[in-house]
Design a protein that fits this description.
This protein is α+β, with helices and mostly antiparallel strands. About 35% of the residues lie in helices and about 10% in strands. The protein has 7 helices and 6 strands. Helix 5 links the parallel strand 3 and strand 4. The longest helix has 30 residues. One of its GO terms (cellular component) is ribonuclease MRP complex.
């Protein structure tokens, strides 16, 4: 049996070409002034921040491993109790028996840990996004109690993102805007720094935290480990949104207009392209008219 070689598409689009010769065309488009980019952080600062984060996470991996082991043990105990009830009378366990087993060995998603420093850290894109959204809505103090965030959670102070390891990077494209909204709030007394980490940081953070993947990390302002980051963040620019800042004077500086050049393509012979498109529409209409009409049967 001969080997089949998979076909490789090198084009950006796998759609069929129209067969006409095309030429490169540049179109001028206005840049979006409300789109914020990532801060420019030197590579040595990125490496230093990563090393400080790994040092701050000392012992967190053991805590996560112990929590997962305890959760599996409690879940196994509940399953064993349910099996014993079933084997005793040959029937499925009734809801009250299951409830009693759950009361004896309750299953908790996150068991209590003796180390309180774990509450100062947030792992994952979703958790960091929720914290920043809460901070933007309530910038003047601790976060209110909700179903998503525990009560009296301190505000985030540093957000580190493994931008070079995330594919696609659009998964974290919203974080600069959220950080800018937090820093530009009128009642905000605390600032949030955003730092992108070097390539390979995701695997290093996951190993230090005892998790499978860590694409984003946040540390709050009340963490005792934050003192190690103060000198490093002096060279990191703060992201702010000028349109959200309260006006200081009667005049406000306007954002300069920026025009981008978008590279695309167009047919060399526009007349032939229009004729081919018209012929294609006519052929599709004739093909559609030949189809049998649906028969509606009424009772």
């Amino acid at each position: 049996m001969t080997e089949r070689v998979a076909r490789t598409h090198t084009n950006k689009s796998n759609r069929a070409k129209d067969g006409l010769e095309r030429k490169a065309v540049y179109k001028s488009v206005l840049d979006n002034p409300f789109q914020l980019g990532w801060p420019s952080v030197p590579e040595n600062v990125q490496n230093a921040v990563l090393a400080s984060i790994i040092s701050a996470l000392d012992g967190v991996a053991d805590m996560h491993h112990a929590a997962r082991k305890e959760s599996r043990k409690r879940k196994r105990a509940v399953d064993d109790d349910a099996k014993r009830v079933k084997l005793g009378d040959g029937k499925e366990p009734e809801p009250e028996h299951t409830a009693q087993a759950m009361d004896i060995c309750p299953v908790t998603a996150v068991p209590e840990t003796p180390n309180k420093s774990l509450s100062h850290f947030s792992f994952g894109i979703n958790k960091v996004t929720k914290l920043l959204e809460q901070h933007a809505q309530h910038p003047g103090g601790t976060l209110p109690s909700s179903d998503q965030v525990s009560p009296n959670t301190s505000l985030p102070k540093l957000v580190a993102v493994c931008l070079a390891d995330i594919n696609p990077p659009g998964l974290v494209a919203h974080l600069p805007n959220l950080v800018a909204a937090c820093n530009s709030a009128r009642a905000c007394t605390s600032r949030v720094w955003l730092v992108q980490l070097p390539k390979g940081a995701e695997e290093s953070l996951a190993a230090a935290a005892g998790l499978r993947r860590v694409a984003a990390f946040a540390i709050d302002q009340s963490a005792p480990q934050f003192d190690a980051f103060r000198s490093l963040l002096e060279s990191v620019p703060l992201i702010t949104a000028s349109w959200l800042n309260p006006s200081v004077g009667p005049e406000r500086a306007l954002i300069p207009t920026h025009i981008k050049q978008l590279k695309t393509s167009a047919p060399r012979d526009m007349r032939a392209a229009k004729e081919a498109r018209a012929q294609g529409k006519a052929a599709a209409k004739r093909k559609k008219s030949k189809l049998p009409k649906p028969v509606i049967i009424t009772a």
